[in-house]
Amino acid sequence: MEVWINPACSKCRGALSLLDAEGARYTLRYYLEEPPTVEELDEVLTRLGLEPWDIARLGEPAADAVGLASWARDDAHRVRWLEALAALPPSSSAPSSPRTTGPR
User: Fold this and answer.
1) Model pTM score
2) pLDDT tens, residue by residue, 25-82
């Protein structure tokens, strides 16, 4: 499993503590240094059963600057949301997004 983290984020550190307590095996990806692509975001959200607007931090200045909170939240606009999240600074989306890196 790959876990996307920001080491300065308390929720990220908490997630790692839970994984460690369960003896889970994982690799770390520092998403501030290596932001996810549109394709990676799409894959993770699909696996988690979430939509891009579910993880967007609408109160962040970058999200506010593009009017993200007013965008339609439907399948017709999903790609637009994914592209925006991939392009916005990483703090505009949720901090910890685990994904399986092995076979599906």
Assistant:
1) 0.77
2) 999 999 989 999 999 999 999 999 999 999 998 988 989 999 999 999 999 999 999 9
Whole-number CA gyration radius for the chain? 14
2-92: in CATH 3.30.1370.10: no
Burial of 5 by CB count in 10 Å (0-12 exposed, 13-18 middle, 19+ buried)? buried
